[in-house]
Each structure stands twice: as structure tokens, then as C-alpha cells.
Amino acid sequence: MNAIETHGLSRRYGRLEAVHGLDLAVPAGAIFALLGPNGAGKSTTIKVLMNLLEPTAGSATVLGVDSRRLSPRELARIGFVADNMELPEWMTVRVFLDYCRPLYPTWDRDLESNLLQKFELPTDRKLKHLSRGMRMKAALIAALAYRPMLLVLDEPFSGLDPVVRDDFIRGVLEVSALGDWTVFLSSHDVEEVERLADWIAVLEQGKLRFAEPLDSLLRRFRRIEITRGANSVPSPSQSQKPIPSTWLASEEAGTLHRFIDSQYMEGDAERRCAELFPGAAINVQPLPLREIYLTLARHPEAAKAMQP
Amino acid sequence: MLPFSIELRPGLPLAEQILFAVKKAVVSGQLRPGDKFPSVRQLSQELRVNPNTAHKVVAALVAENVLLSTPAVGTVVAAPVAGSRRERAALLGSELERVIVEAKKFGLDIHDVQAAVEAHWRKLSEPSKS
Q1: What is the β-pairing status of strands A150-154 and A182-187?
Q2: pLDDT on residue A200
């Protein structure tokens, strides 16, 4: 079952198409990161999912319900925190939580006080007098305390100092358990989500570049370095044998030849290398997520290979 | 706090890093047979990693008989693997190959590698200082 699905989802603002034909499936139980530069359409997508905007074409379902028909019943199972979220500024933290509590039948007071303590929030301070990080924490408590089935976070970490960010992640993990709990979050920074996410999707100029489990990405990308012996073996440009099309970003300097294999299979790649470069030393290294991201940005064809 | 040393490096597969840290802790005696192993929840929260990753690590360690899942106590560190010496040695295959390839690249011979292995062996055999 998917916690979120979009089908040909588009949203335009006048002439500007912010999101274009988005097909997304967020499996239940995943921590799903939607990555992309600022202005890629991440926030617009999330606003459509939360029914703050209507799609101009296509549709989205959230917890099995069309986003345009999300009722308080569904919203009581969804937690939502956005970077620039409007909060009732005049309320103190205490009053704010008192105000939210009766809206959610599943509100857990123990969890609320546990998070308050963990986050060291001053409960008698007005929201407008809180720092940005503190306000985000207050919003997160109000979104976590009813143990939602789906947590949606729009740029949760941007501009937070490292300590607040760590608290924030701890808070999210505090509530998370294995099973049907799903987190959907947007970010413009790969490294922010690397430890947390098990699914990565990249949105660029309103279009989905790829969506793939993190495991699968880390498994299929490798940097391969081939050091040719002193008795020169033909370099690939001179070699007659064709180089597999899944070998990307090929570079050469001196006796070193380096490329990225986008469909790495253990043993297989080594065998191919040995055929193409007899007698050369082969070194295979895993590729950090940041570099996988860059590789896919420069070689969109490597993303298509995996799509169903 | 987790009962074993670990420092996660960005970029490398998390599950593999945690697996390696746990196995290293068992080999070096930081984790002893019978010691209680942290729950999935604890692992996830202490390391700030996805609970699915933590779950996968624990499942893999149980499957490899590094950990033992007991109904009463939870997960504990298992006694060293049974099986023949040769079977256990075979587990080292790919690691050894990597070491040998690296050594050859640096122009070392087998004696240099033996000396380095011995020195490292002694280092890990000393009682843990942490």
C-alpha cells in the first residue's frame, strides 16, 4: 500500500508550471525524501498533498483519499510541519498545545511532555518570541503528539543550527516505529537526509528525475579505478571493444582510468574490466550519495534504466 | 549510549558501517558473548538513522550468528561462530583480496603484509582501553 500517490500531477501559477506531470508513489513505512534545488516545485507538491492548493491537472491521494477531499478525519492522522508555517504567534507554547490537543483523538500527553522536555522548550513564552528553531520544535511537537500515520515535513532542517537539527531528528525518530508510519520530507540538501531516508526522489524544474530506494542506489553505483601496468594496455578510447553504456563519467590521466558504473554487479564488472584491460589493477569503491546525485543530474539516462 | 565504538562516515552505506562496527567490537572484546545488544529503537535513536536500517542491521547480525535473539532477554551477543576453521577463514576471502590488491598497488611484498597483519592483530588482542 502507498501512503501517498500522485498521478500526472501538475500545478501552474498563471503561466508558470511549478509541477509538471508528477507520478510519485510513497510506500507506507518509508522515510521518503524529496530532493531538489530551491524552486524545483517541492513545496508546491507538498501544498497540493496537504490540500492547501488544488492541482491544475492530475491528482494526488494521501492515505488513500483524494487530496481535494481530505477531511478532518484524515488530517487527524497526518502531521505537517513546514519551514515557513503560520503559527498563532500570540499564543504561548503551553496555550498552543492546549489549543491543538482537543483536535486530535489520539493525542498522547506523555509523548507531549516527553518531547517538551527533550526539546527544552520554554512553555510560557509566546511563539512570536521564540527563535526559528524553537518555533519549528513547537510545531513538531504539535504534529507528533497525536502519533500520526503520516508525517509531512517541508524543508524541516533548512536554517536550523546543528544542535536543533539533531533534536529535531531525535524527535522524529522517537515517534517512529517499524511498520506503517510514513515520513515524507523535502530538502535541498542530500547530506541532510542521507541517514534518515530510505527512499530518494529528485525533483527538478517541476519534473521527477528519479525515485528509488536508497539501498538500491547505493548498491548499483560504484566508482571503478583501473590502473594500467607499465606495459601499456590500450586505453578505452583506443580499444576496439565497446565500453558498456552504463559506465559513466569516464576519465583518464596517465596510467589511471576512472569511471562510474551505474549498474554495478559484483564480479560482473570486475570480469568486464579484466577483459577490456588485461593485466590492470582494478579498484572498486562505493559512491557517496552526494556523488550519486550529481552523477544522475549529469546523466539522466542512468536514472531511466531503473524505472518500471 | 551504545556499548560499542562507532563513528558513522557520510557517504558510505550505513548498514554496512554499523555491521562492521559491531563485528569489530565483538572481535576486539568490547562486546562479549551474552552481553545485551541495543534494541532497534535504541540503535536508531542513538545513531540518528532510519529505524528500517537499524532493523536490517540487527536482522543481518542475527542471521550471521553474531547476535542471538532470545525471547526473555531480547537480543544478546552470541558465542563465537561454530563451524570449521576453514569455513570461518573462508569468510575473510573478499577482505583479504582487497588487502592484497592494495598491498600490490603500494609495491609491498608478502612479508610486509604479514608484518602489518601481525602488528594489527596484536593491537586488537590487547585488552580494550576504552
Answers
A1: parallel
A2: 93
Contacts 24+ apart (CB under 8 A), A132-136: A132/A159, A132/A160, A133/A160, A133/A161, A133/A164, A134/A164, A135/A87, A136/A81, A136/A83, A136/A160, A136/A164, A136/A168
ipTM entry: 0.71
**Cα separation, A298 vs A288, whole angstroms:** 16
* The predicted structure's pLDDT at residue B82: 59
Q: Which residues touch A244 (CB under 8 Å, ≥6 apart)?
A: A261, A263, A272
Contact B58, B37 (CB under 8 A): yes
Report helix angle A162-175 to B40-47, nearest 10.
160
Distance of residue A62 Cα from the nearest chain B Cα, in angstroms: 22
A58 in contact with B, Cβ within 8 Å: no
Q: What gap in Å lies between CA A242 and CA A113, rounded to an integer?
A: 63
Residues whose CB is less than 8 angstroms from the CB of residue B126 and which lie 6 or more positions away in sequence, other chains included? none
Q: State pTM to two decimals.
A: 0.81
Q: Check CB contact under 8 Å for A176 and B49.
A: no
Q: In what order do the strands lie in the sheet with A256-261?
A: A247-253, A256-261, A222-227, A281-286
A290 and B11 Cβ atoms separated by less than 8 Å? yes
Percent of chain A with pLDDT over 90: 47
Length of chain B as a residue count: 130
pLDDT score at B123: 82
Residue A286 to residue B12, Cβ atoms within 8 A: yes
Residue spans of chain B under pLDDT 70? 11, 81-91, 93-94, 127-130
- Asked if residue A239 has pLDDT above 70, the reply is no
Q: Answer whether A160 touches B (CB < 8 Å).
A: no
pLDDT band of residue A284 (cuts 50, 70, 90) is confident
pLDDT in tens, A111-121: 999 999 989 99
